[in-house]
Amino acid sequence: MTKQKNVRKPNVSDEEYFNLSRASYNYKTLKLHIKYKKPYKINKTSYWYIEQVKQDTDTGLDAFVFSQAENKNGKWVKSNNPKNVVVAFAGTDLSKDLEADGAKADAENVAIGLDPKKETEYIVEKGAKDTSKTLGVYTRSMEQLQMMESGNYKVITKTTQIDQADQLVREVKQKYKGTSTIVSTTGHSLGGAEAEYSAVNNDIYAVSFNSPSIVKLHSEEKQKEINNGEYNRYVKSIVNPDDMIGAGWWNEYDRHNGTTIYTKDPAVSNAMREMRMRGKVTDQIGENAAYFFQTAILGMPDTHWVGSNNFSFDEDGNIKNIDGDELVYDKNLKAMLPAEVASGSGAIKVTPEVAKQLAEKVNAIINDLRTMKREAENAYQEHDAAISDLKYDTYRQVGHGLYDQLTLGDVNNTLNDLAQSFDKKGNPLFYDVDAEAAYIASLQDTISDLEEISGYLAQIAKDFKSKDKMLANWLKL
Question: Which residues, including other chains, have CB under 8 Å from residue 84's CB and lie 6 or more apart?
Fold first, then answer.
């Protein structure tokens, strides 16, 4: 069974996280709320105060710490002990931070995978109290060296905005340590990557929207935990499968830090991706680049922004299918699920539709495994044919030309020396017979187990009322 982290889950809906992610782009509006000490309205029953703003124009960081307001006598007031605190990160804003967001964070860290903790030197006035904006990167130019010699300037170091986000979340978590307040993170695009990165590093809950996968930016230990599914219940990436930033620029992402929820069935999106990957590599690059520019940059159609065309919610605030279907797609389970199941909100119930969907997925896996088993069982035929051809081609050259000193015995001895095992007749085999048998047996065991599970699921789908509780306990939902 997959080990799960001891992470406290907040009572904050997908829709509230979505609205906080959108709010993080409204820099001027949020600062006005801070100035006049007014709560920010998410919806009729959700108001939040801005506790802290963390921006750095050198690195591109834009982060806002929200605390949940409480309703007293019909008035939303600041709570001394908020139930929830959410750190929201804004994503790429090329009009504001072209180099910091686009060239550095997006390209160097997210795309290439450079270490977010890498430090960069900046030059700043010696008496500057606010170092969120320096005079620029310290390149040791002649002009900068002269400035340093004057004694009026100094050099400071900063890490990337992704690491700065991690540091901020660590500080906020420490502030509320020992209290009932639950700290979580959210963000869109690059901001979602920062939300996921800091959540995993600090063992807190996170919900991101159209976030790129940043698994590779974590330490090897954290990557193992992520790939083992230890954050599946606590980090949720909500993604439009048409979006190349959230679903994958070239190939589809293997995974995000936790559970990936697609806002619709990805079948059509995957088919379109396959079409873009046809032909020569140059053709593939051109097709993918054109699609990215058209959708992510020009927005025709817009697949990326935190808008209602990409994200929609039910009356309880759970993410729902943007095509109008009742189910959303859990990429980890490879199954269509009800919104409340995918969101993990309230009392999760298994429906007949879910049981049927899971049974179909299990049967598809069984068929794939049966095909693999048949191929493994018949592999000896291809092997024997190849060895027979090799012997024929070699035998007919023995005693002639370059091989005039070679005998049939020499050929057979060489084949025997190179063989990994032998059949019952003593003929050389170039594969491990025991390993092959173990592999086939393992496939059969897995098929048998899955057939049993499929049988349970099919029966549950038929006789749901009597089996509902059993399935919920069995799946530990």
Answer: 10, 11, 12, 67, 68, 181, 182, 183, 184
